[in-house]
Each structure stands twice: as structure tokens, then as C-alpha cells.
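User: Look at the shape:
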Amino acid sequence: MKKTGVAIVLILLILSMMGCKSLKQSKKFNVIQNEVFIDSMMNNALDKNFFPGAQIIVGDKDSVFITKNYGYHDYSKQQRVTSDDVYDLASMSKVLGATLVAMRLVGEDKIDLDDKLGDAVVNYKDTPVSDLTLFELLTHTSGLKSGIIFYKSLMFTLDGSPFLNDEKSEVFVDLFDSMYVNKNIVYDKKYLAFEKTDGYIQIYKNMWLNPEFYKTVSDSLALALVNPRGSYVYSDLNLILAQQMMEAKTGLKLDVLANGLFNDLGISKIGYNPLKWTSKDHVIPTEIDNLFRKDTLKGYVHDESAAIFGGVSGNAGVFANAASVSVICQMLLNKGTYQDKQILKPKVVKTFKRSPLAKKGIYRGIGFDKRKPNEFYRKDDFGHTGYTGTYFFLNPDNHRFLIILTNRVHPTRTNRQMYEDDFGPKIWRQINNHD
């Protein structure tokens, strides 16, 4: 009887301690206060048409505190955003595709950060970019120019007139970005077909590319070293070349490598070319492209360079819902482990999320975006943003993360209100500063 009484006391004591721990944890992050703030920010953004809709998740390495959907797929307000909908992540793909794959390959000793481009990819041997390392590519310190508009080489006008003009006229009719598109643009039939053609790569629902065009792309990339090596210039070209290095080293395409990692994490609402794994109804539209694809983009990547590569590129191409991204955030905050499974080596995670060039005033991580400490960001925060209106950041000190997915480029990329408002950074500051 005495033993029973002692056991009961011990059980009550343990339950009491668990309750205190739970209470302490709930106090640590004030869900109600933060949700009110986020609702206010989102409702203001929707009222002012920052974007048609959004998904948001706030959590830490062990839990999800807030997960909400707002608004609609587009401004017709016919279809509400749901948790199963997937967004075009744009440059968040640099991390959630190419960088994660690089981290896994480095951990498996299949590639090294000091490996040189020309040693891995034969096309670049004995070219000006031959000696560029994977480290330089992933930290944007290669010296490559900020970008190359590959797709414009696939179009021309018979009279040599420009593709775009500041003023609307009989010739320049439809709006693209902040300019008007020449209605007399024609496509180069040497490289583009508008029906399925053997050996061609599908780059849009009605467009197929002759793979011979990739020789032109490689030649352009080989001559893209225009800045001093070691200087910071953010460039899509870096991740395109990093992709080519990893594919050459492994003999596998980037999407195959990334899917292997996603499968290990048990996430299925993420990947390249979303119409291969989800329905069109669950893909959020991006821009009305009046220049190249002449359509509202839905189910195909927004980024034109990634489109040229068939929707699979180191710089862009990943689509996902916020829930899938949250699993990756928790894995990273748990030193590469998720649900007792080691996805990435802890040492590799530590290496990639640091700022190895901070003494030079370059605050980037390896692949990851990091910021000089300011009112919004701490020195160890890491993540990335995307041109389509996407954002995710992690704080390794309090183990919190924030994911915001929007389609601010719908119907046009000229809508930059969420950036002018510091929309993402304000929410990031809120969830880190108010405990």
C-alpha cells in the first residue's frame, strides 16, 4: 500500500512537471498575440492587393505554432487558397533544390566545395570559368554577371525593331512588366516547335526546345565571367552552373536528386514541374506573360531561364506548399535530422548556414541568404526569398522559422508593394521579438 502511494505521488509529480514544461513552452511563443499581428498584416495586404492570396506557417524545430491560408488563387476570387495548393517558389529553389542537394552530396563525399567547374563539366574545361569552385558558385562570389536572358535568342522581329517599348502604339500593344510588347515578334523555328517533337525538351505546355540550343547557352555561360572573382554579385548563373556540376558528378538530374531527399523527408507537395505530381487546380498562377509564352502561367515555372531548362534549374523551378517547406525547416533546425532519420550530416548543415565571408562584408551563407544584422535580422538568421513573392527564414538561436508563400507577380511583376512595405521582414521581426 505504501509503495502504491509513493508511485501515485511520483506519477502526479511527473505530470505536474510535464504540465509546467508545456505551460512554459506555450508562454515562450504567444500564439494569440502573433496570430493577431499576422492576421492584421495579411488583411491589410489583401485589401491593398499586395497579392491575391497566401499560405503562412510559423513554427520551431519541434512544433508548428501557426498555419493559415489567406485569400484566393487570383483576383477573380473564385478559388480560395487551401493547404494543398502549391506555389512557384522562384529563387527559394536555390536553397530548397540545388543547395539541399549540394549539402547531401558533400556529406556523402560525392562532391567537394573546392571542386572546380571545368574538372566536373567537360564543356567548361579550358574556358574562362573552368577554375570556378562550387564554393564560389554557391556564395555568389564567382564573378559571373547577374544574368543572361537566354530566351530572347529564340525570338526576333523581321524588321529589327525592339521587342519592347515604353509607349503603347499600334505595334506595341500588350503590357509586360512596365513596357509594351511588339506584336510582330516571331519565334526562331530552328530551335522552337509548337507541337511535340522527338528529342525536343518541353519548356511550356505548347512549346518544345531543340536541345541544340543548349550549346548556345553553354557558350554564353563560358563567357559570363565579367567581375573580379571573390566579389559578391548575386546571379542565377551561379546556381545553373552548380546544378551542372552536381549532375555531371552523379550522372543524375537535379530533380531526381531533389526528389530523393524529399521522399526521405516524407513530403509530397514539393518538386519541379508540378503538373507531373499534382492537379492544375492545386497550382497557384503567377504572371500573365505577354512576351515569351503569351499566356497566364499556371503549372509551369515563372522564371524564363528555368523554363529553358525544361522547368528544372538550379536557380528556380521548385513548387511547394508551406507544409512541405516547414518539414525542411525543422530538419535544418534539428541539425539535419527529421523524425529520427538523418537526412543531412550535422557538420554539413553547420558549414552551409554560417557566413564564411563575413569579414569581407559578404554575409551570405553557402547557398543560403543571410543578412547583415539590422532591425529585422540577426547575424545567424538564414533562409531565402523568391521573386514570385515567397519568403522563408530560420533563427537557429530560438529555433523558430517563418514561411510565407504568395503570388505577388499575378497578374504582373510590377506589383512590388509587399517589398515596399517590408511585409516579410516585419512578420519575421514580430515572431522573434515578442515572446
